[in-house]
Description:
Elements: E1 12-16, H1 17-20, E2 28-31, E3 38-41, E4 51-55, H2 56-62, E5 76-79
Parallel strand pairs: 1-3
Antiparallel strand pairs: 1-4, 2-3, 2-5
Amino acid sequence: MSFPFCEVPNTATILCKHIARGEKRILYVSHDEDDGMWQFLCNEEHTIEDLMLVTLKQAYELDPSIGEIKDLPLGNEAWRENPQMPWRS
């Protein structure tokens, strides 16, 4: 599996614990304008306690479909209804 992002694989990203525990899938992604941070979230409401730092490579290995939005510009978001649907932004 080739790493599709232009950022280095060990770039810190935010992931919700629901996804890390395998309970949910990535349904919402943001690429923050202020710091370039990627956020990979499910469709639940989150508190700070629900979030964790992982590498971009770890997030990609959990769900390679995020590679489809590797060029998401800073300050933009992408979402989908379920994992079988295409990403929208």
